[in-house]
Amino acid sequence: MFDDDHLPTSIVGRNRHMNEVTDALAPIEDGFRAENCFLFGPSGVGKTTVARAAVRELRQEVLDVPHAYVNCWQDYTRNAVLEQLARDLVGAALPRSSSTGRLIDLIKNNLHGPGVVILDEADQLRGTEVLYDLHDIRGLSWIGIANREVDLLADLDDRITSRISVAYRVHFDTYNDDTIAKILSRRARAGLGPNAVGEDVLARIARLSEGDARQAIAALRVGARMASREGLSAIPARLVEDAVANAEREVRQKTISKLNDHQRVLYEVLAEEDGLIQKELYARYEEAHPDPVTLRYLRENHLPKLEHYNLVDVEWDRGTKRYSLVGVDHSEHRSELA
Ligand SMILES: Nc1ncnc2c1ncn2[C@@H]1O[C@H](COP(=O)(O)OP(=O)(O)OP(=O)(O)O)[C@@H](O)[C@H]1O
Ligand SMILES: [Mg+2]
């Protein structure tokens, strides 16, 4: 119930977003290729959840619809994405390190009928050729998810933008406190029982979570754990602040564990010395990483990711950005990395 990838039975307060995505997918029910769609917005606002719930709805209509989920943060190369697709869409048993061409053929030859792919964290894709690949596979459509609207589509050159249409662009804004409280209330009832959390406590967690459902749910989980350690069956209001703070740390810790090697080096550099401007940060990163990306790539891809997940704070300082780690003090950061 409290796992981040738990898909709740009902999605609270996102009817319009759900409708847009199910509209995009609707052609599949009649045997046609769906429209591509692109979901974007800040962290913890239900993008991944809505995409998965829309595919779940589709599967209730079209039982054996080919579908795949790729987390491009982990699988960021063209081949990694295609391998995941070959596995999920056509159940291919892959020979080790198949070539790009072979992977595409495998999917093309074995995909029968229209299907859909969720490209989560699509702003982490190294290059956009894979979108051409998907486009060339008959019947295949995608739901792309990223933090900002520009991130995915900026890199596409004119050829691709004219060929690949993204018919639906769905913006997710942060939840208001009432919606967060409602999400929490359902989760609490389902996971902890009917009376484990009072309205006041839910409202308080909601207010402190600033529209981020992931933080809020984590705080609920941590609060329940703290209460049960004290032998209590309900979460008392006095524990809320600590629960929220501890949950923030837990979520941050989990995010750190997902960083790719470039982002990790950046994080480590900042843990060594906080408050670096972009140039300094890049210089240290370039020294520390065996195969560094360009400053531009770092600026447009990895640094925004760290910001999005609230791992670094950015401050404008005389026309340049200055980066520091969010939250706790330095010694603590070092132990987080250890
Ligand atoms: N409308 C909702 N109803 C119920 N649960 C929700 C809702 N929105 C989000 N959640 C829950 O909140 C958590 C975070 O949601 P989700 O993973 O969809 O966020 P996201 O927008 O994809 O964030 P990120 O950009 O960090 O990946 C998940 O555990 C999800 O189950
Ligand atoms: Mg997500």
TrEMBL record:
Q: Which GO terms fall under molecular function for this chain's record?
A: ATP binding; ATP hydrolysis activity
Q: State whether keyword Hydrolase applies.
A: no
Residues covered by the AAA+ ATPase domain:
33-171
Q: What's a Pfam family this protein contains?
A: AAA_22
Q: Which InterPro entries match?
A: AAA+_ATPase, AAA_22, Cdc6_lid, ORC1/CDC6, P-loop_NTPase
GO BP: any one term:
DNA replication
Q: Which UniProt keywords apply?
A: ATP-binding, DNA replication, Nucleotide-binding
Q: What is the similarity comment for this entry?
A: Belongs to the CDC6/cdc18 family.
The molecule here is called: AAA ATPase
